[in-house]
Amino acid sequence: MFRYTRRTAVREVLVVLAALVVFSPLLILLNVSLKTTQDSVSTSAFSPASPLTVDGFRQALGGEGQNSLVTGALNSAVITGCSVVVLIALGSITAFTLTRITTGWSRAAFASFLVAIVLPAQLGQVPLYSAMRHLDLLGTRTGMVLAYSGMLMPLAVFLYSGFTRSLPQEYEEAAQMEGASRFTIFTRVVFPLLAPATGTVAILAGLIVWNDFFTSLVFLNGSDAVTLPVVVYSFVGTLVSRWNVVFAAVLLSMVPVLVLYLLAQKRFIQGFAGGVKG
Amino acid sequence: MSPAAAVRPDATGSVPPPAPGGGGRVPRRRRAASRVAAWWWSLPALALIAAVHYATTIAGSAYAFTDFNGFRSPEFVGLANFREILTGAAPLRALLNTVVIAVAFLVLTNVLGMAFAVALNRQLKSRYVLRTVLFAPVVLSPLAVSYVWKFLFQQDGPINQVLGAVGLESLQRTWLGDPLTVVPAITTVMVWQHIGLTMVIYLAGLAGVPPENEEAAAMDGAGPWSRFRHVVLPALRPTILVASTMILVQGLRVFDQVQALTGGGPFGASDTLATSVYKETFVNGRFGYGSALALVMTAIVLLCALVQMLLLRERKEK
Predict the structure, then answer these.
(1) Complex confidence, ipTM
(2) Domain made up of A68-238: CATH architecture
(3) Whose CA is closest to B255, among B312, B197, B297?
(4) Chain B nearest C-alpha distance from A158 (Å)
(5) Which residue spans traverse the membrane (chain A) (predicted)?
(6) Quick one: which of A246, B44, B123, B211 is 20 to 30 A from A179 by CA?
(7) Are A243 and B242 a contacting pair at CB < 8 A?
């Protein structure tokens, strides 16, 4: 049944063409970034870059304006890394606690995480802004790590809880009989078993923090801790129709994520599919 | 919390097995104390979301009824902000744009994602490569993606070039500068970036549809379309619901793409609730009015999420 016939081949060609059309913006991005400034304006986006030049990349990295792409990338990396660590540490232990203890308050606590997942950030932004200003956290990496950890904690708890709920309890009970302390049981027995969920949380939360624009625009604009999206945003504002430089900057900002994606595409795709199913 | 409450059977109805050791029955009290998880472990995370989500949202809702501007102490103005939203042309425009974008985003992303999922479910030799390629835009930042499309939408950009090449000059537009086309253009960018996401969700859903059902229908003489319509589609219903809510909520919150592509222009023609909130609060310094706009947006988002939850529960009970 459902053999590969000539009609399937025709369908395959059509699907490949459709996929090519969908993918073409990224090919154009690469092409234009390799042109000279003059060519990026005067030649068609479809004509291949000739002469090939990395001038755009050199200018993008040369850092016009006060914050360079390199600074932005470093800030983004530090903020993303620290947020993910906090989310994994607190998210896993919280989900474990809330799924193992099933009383009224823990169910209410779990529901509070679920509601927070869909709550838009905009409404709380002003109070969060003034709170951070009072605490001297505005425009700092520490402040951003705290803000992102809080914002994405509901997602982390939700992803972990789907996993902890289906985790067999025999291992914990066996360890308990051996006299291991609760904390040892969690760190040595439970947490290693949560590895697949940890991967999903790291990928999803890491991507969201790395790509976030709104929160970092509001909290970091003009500070030293600006993240990559804010740098690219203010960068592009100053580059009127120097598309090769714009595209070089955009491409450079994409590289870390694209490389990770190509190395671990299966994990990424499973992470999204699994994350959505819960 | 009483110790008895702590040993109640959990939600799945399973009663914890009696603790081993010692041979005799373990007293209930000790059993409760020997839980593997300690309740206070969840406190740091709860404190964090109480502070970052709930305290701020409640405080923000309170601002919505004031004329706070960041300097003077806020003064209660009742429903004045909401009256301004309901009688002003700009906020209504933003509300309308948000709904139009969210609904179009919802329909197109789901249809295209499902189409690619069905096409790439099995048979095709290139399916694994194509899945990887089509999913790639999902991992990119919406901001970066928007700049690529800003270039494509230019007056002398690739889209107008293609239209010219195939003899459709009459369709050429300044896509982002024309109040008529700016909202569809923004929606296109969002749809483009999310096709891969819905595709993956539907592929996961399709994995739960056994090929035998389709084969049986084919034996009975059902063509590809009627197999899809009567066998595959009904089985995908829960997936459609999950994917739709997620995409709808994302659409209602759209900010990055609008900010990067047009900044809300031309003349507010593409403003959404989220960009209006940003502009009013952080550019114009009208914290009270901005909060009122944000409250409207939050109410809409929560309502959509609630409807989805009820629909899912209804399905489970059937």
Answers:
(1) 0.88
(2) Orthogonal Bundle (1.10)
(3) B297
(4) 12
(5) 12-34, 77-98, 105-123, 143-164, 185-210, 243-264
(6) B44
(7) no
